């Protein structure tokens, strides 16, 4: 490798490591002194792999920067374009991921010599966390987050890191947002909930936009939540309408797989993918409903961190309309799709709740999150696999949940 190219390369790698807050990537030279090989870790902030350590290798070809680096991601992700060429993991001349930026323009890709390593990893990180994944042929393909996927990718990340950790850089401290403790009234639910038996348990009524600081909360231990169980929290102005079938219903909804919803009176329900599934801590979830937000936080080592707070969980007139004097009900919805029953234990809140207080994001619009289009009821997603066979993925958990809520 020419000295000037090596100098540029090392500068670009330093830039990546210096911008961990945004790129969430750390790159280090190969410990065996292979000047063309670098190890990297990626720690996504969103998506099914949020806060998990993904590991891989980057190889620099002799033709860099005219040709892009070769990227091998050792961690399985269950994302089609990411895992498609895992058979190439021993091939230093071909990437294991299938994205245009990993091919030069001369080979029908998008890479050009002005691109940097930072630009490459920013693009790859976006592909790892986005709800929709660009395809070489046809429209972007949705990649759904389910409880099963959350369980799987945790194990993939653990196994791949343990296998390759001797060649990996040190894991940096992950920047997390700690929630703010407030006094809160306990919402009364049964001490033990069996998944799907019944599918809905309800507390309330409570009132919003009262002008005071009253908050309500409950806490649950989800460590026993099985892969085939849907878990959602729904705040609705109706005791029975959990999806917004009635025009007058107002609701917000959040769950453990990053899908969420909001509905104003007289308007249709809007479904979102906010990108932050329940993939952290020990699965102890604390839900607080304050005057301006419904916030999910998780318990990790005695601290509470924001889980899924986003604009669609805010409860001001701007988001859900003027609901002063309207009774609201808090529903815990569970549905067993497969496997055995799960036990969900209610925890003592000790009169506390936890809210997200960050003025910098208080005015963000819901368009920062991906709006999810509802497919036809019978639609499934079919894709072509590398060996020519077809794999069929059933409709995503979001729509199964929506259909299950039709009561």
From TrEMBL:
Residues 4-169 form the UBC core domain. It comes from the Eukaryota. Transmembrane segments: none annotated. This is UBC core domain-containing protein. It comes from Clonostachys rhizophaga. The lineage of its organism: Eukaryota, Fungi, Dikarya, Ascomycota, Pezizomycotina.
